[in-house]
Design brief:
single chain, alpha/beta, Elongation Factor Tu (Ef-tu), domain 3, Rossmann fold, 6-stranded antiparallel sheet, globular
C-alpha cells in the first residue's frame, strides 16, 4: 500500500548532545509503528523546492505523538535546520512508518543484542523503551559505541533501564576517568561478552555507519551468531 504524506507539527525539541536533538511531533491520525521503524520527512521551501530525508523513530507510539532523532551533519541541507532552526509550532510532512525488517516486537522472549554506533542508537532506543513497557519480553543487552561520554544519547533512559537491560559503553576517543577499558573501536572481546548472553537464534540488531555495521556483523558471525539472526541498519 502506498503511504501518503501527513502533516506533522513540531511541539518539542530536546537536546541529546551538543549536535543531536530529539524532535517531538504530533501527527493527526498516526497509525502507530513498531520499534525500529523510520519515517521520511519532507521540507518545502517558499519557492517550491523540496528536500526529503529519512529519520528513525526514537520511541514507541504514543497516540498521535512521535519522536525523531536528528544528528546535525556538517554542511547538511536538512539536519541543521531541523535540529536548531525549525520553530516549535511549525509544520513539516512525514511519510511512514517505513521498514518491517529492522524491528523488535514485544512478544519476543529470547534475549536480544543491540549494537549501536553513534546516532545509530536512535532506533535501538525505541526498542529499549518498547521493551520496558512490555514487561514480559526477554532481556536486552546494548553495546553502545560513542566517541566520548558527552556524545551519548538517551543517557537517563539507558542508565535507568532496570535489571532486564544491560548497557555497556565503548568510547572510541575519550573514556571517563577511572574507566577500565581504554578508548578504542568495538573489538571482538567486547562482542564476545555480549554474545555469551544470547541463546540459539537470538535476534541481533546492529545500527550505525556502514563501516561500523559491516565490521560488527562480520565479527558476530565469527563468534557464532547466525547470519539470519542479524538485522542491520546503516547510514553514510
Amino acid at each position: 500500500m502506498r503511504l501518503s504524506w501527513r502533516t506533522a507539527r513540531l511541539v518539542e525539541r530536546r537536546a541529546q548532545t551538543a549536535t543531536a536533538r530529539t524532535l517531538v511531533l504530533t501527527v493527526p491520525d498516526w497509525p502507530g509503528h513498531l520499534a525500529g521503524q523510520h519515517v521520511d520527512v519532507r521540507l518545502t521551501a517558499d519557492d517550491g523546492y523540496q528536500a526529503v530525508r529519512s529519520y528513525s523513530l526514537a520511541a514507541p507510539p504514543d497516540a498521535d505523538r512521535i519522536e525523531l532523532g536528528v544528528q546535525t551533519v556538517e554542511s547538511g541541507e536538512v539536519s541543521p535546520y531541523l535540529a536548531d532552526e525549525l520553530p516549535v509550532g511549525a509544520d513539516v510532512e512525514v511519510r511512514g512508518p517505513l521498514g518491517n525488517w529492522f524491528v523488535w516486537r514485544p512478544e519476543e522472549t529470547r534475549p536480544a543484542l543491540l549494537v549501536a554506533g553513534g546516532s545509530g542508537v536512535v532506533p535501538l532506543a525505541a526498542m529499549i523503551r518498547a521493551h520496558g513497557r512490555a514487561g514480559t519480553a526477554g532481556p536486552l543487552t546494548l553495546l553502545y559505541s560513542a566517541r566520548t561520554p558527552d556524545d551519548v544519547w538517551y543517557r537517563d533512559d539507558l542508565d535507568g533501564g532496570g535489571e532486564r537491560l544491560d548497557v555497556r559503553y565503548v568510547y572510541t576517543r575519550r573514556a571517563p576517568l577511572g574507566s577500565v577499558r581504554p578508548p578504542g573501536r568495538v573489538a571482538r572481546a567486547d562482542l564476545d561478552q555480549a554474545v555469551a548472553r544470547l541463546v540459539k537464534d537470538s535476534p541481533v540488531f546492529v545500527c550505525g555507519p556502514t563501516a561500523f555495521v559491516e565490521t560488527v556483523s562480520d565479527a558476530l558471525v565469527d563468534l557464532g551468531c547466525s547470519p539470519d539472526a542479524i538485522r542491520t541498519e546503516r547510514f553514510g
